[in-house]
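B., you asked whether I could sanity-check this one before it goes into the benchmark set. Here's the sequence:
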Amino acid sequence: MGKSISKKDSEEREQAYKSLPPSLRNSLTDEEKDLFLHADVWPDTLFEKLSEFIIQGDEK
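And here's what the prediction gave me:
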């Protein structure tokens, strides 16, 4: 997996991570936190953990 997100996206992800409920943040492993913050593609397991907080957008 490449880590090629922009600085703006990185900052937005950091804000999004901080806005997650503490119980959810604490349930993420160090690897999942790193993927949340930096990966250009998330594994299905991370999507499942975050499914309550993800809004599906239109793909371009």
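One thing to flag: The mean pLDDT is 87. Otherwise nothing jumped out at me.
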